[in-house]
Amino acid sequence: xxxxxxxxxxxxxxxxxxxxxxxxxxxxxxxxxxxxxxxxxxxxxxxxxxxxxxxxxxxxxxxxxxxxxxxxxxxxxxxxxxxxxxxxxxxxxxxxxxxxxxxxxxxxxxxxxxxxxxxxxxxxxxxxxxxxxxxxxxxxxxxxxxxxxxxxxxxxxxxxxxxxxxxxxxxxxxxxxxxxxxxxxxxxxxxxxxxxxxxxxxxxxxxxxxxxxxxxxxxxxxxxxxxxxxxxxxxxxxxxxxxxxxxxxxxxxxxxxxxxxxxxxxxx
Length: 268
Fold this sequence. Notes:
Elements: E1 8-10, E2 13-17, H1 18-25, H2 31-39, E3 49-51, E4 54-57, E5 63-66, E6 69-72, H3 73-83, H4 86-103, H5 110-152, E7 159-160, H6 162-167, H7 173-182, E8 186-196, E9 201-210, E10 218-223, E11 235-241, H8 245-251
Antiparallel strand pairs: 1-2, 2-6, 3-6, 4-5, 7-11, 8-9, 10-11
Helix pairs in contact: 3-4
């Protein structure tokens, strides 16, 4: 539908000029008499319309002021219906369509679409950069712990972690540690108590120690490069001596397959 009557924005409200509507409707009565009669249908100045005079030239080229009005679209629709003419019906349908289009998302030009896409992409890039920076800080903060597990809890030539020791016998780390606890070869020792945000409570921070009768099978090593406990204590890790791995397994009640001797030679 083309522009039958020019629509303008007036203080954020869609409106038409009274004389544009008057001309389209083809009213025979003079505007200065017709518009006041329309107002009598219950319209209020300042709410439904405002006076806005304009200047025109007469046939002799002389400029003169004439009365005009800014009419809200709601008022224009009612005035159109009041006319009870085909033109009035056409104008009313036109105003309804204008209102419908105004409520729809604006159709963007290719240039506007490209500008919006660039803006979204730029925002996404900034978010990713911020996340990357946060991740870098998190990695830096976790570096001491990573180094601790890489260098302090990894297998060495003469010792092995409980996890690696248990793996030789088909056990997970918790299973292997429990075997040693059940056999009374090692015990838990509370080093400190710390707040756990995951559990929402104060929890014990345990380390493991070998009972005196089995200390020769294990090696307790201080981890000076690892993060210390909150109370300042140095962390210590209990290792299984590699040369005594099979002996530890036997004392823990683990059935030792003969093939394991090719991997872990038993100490005398």
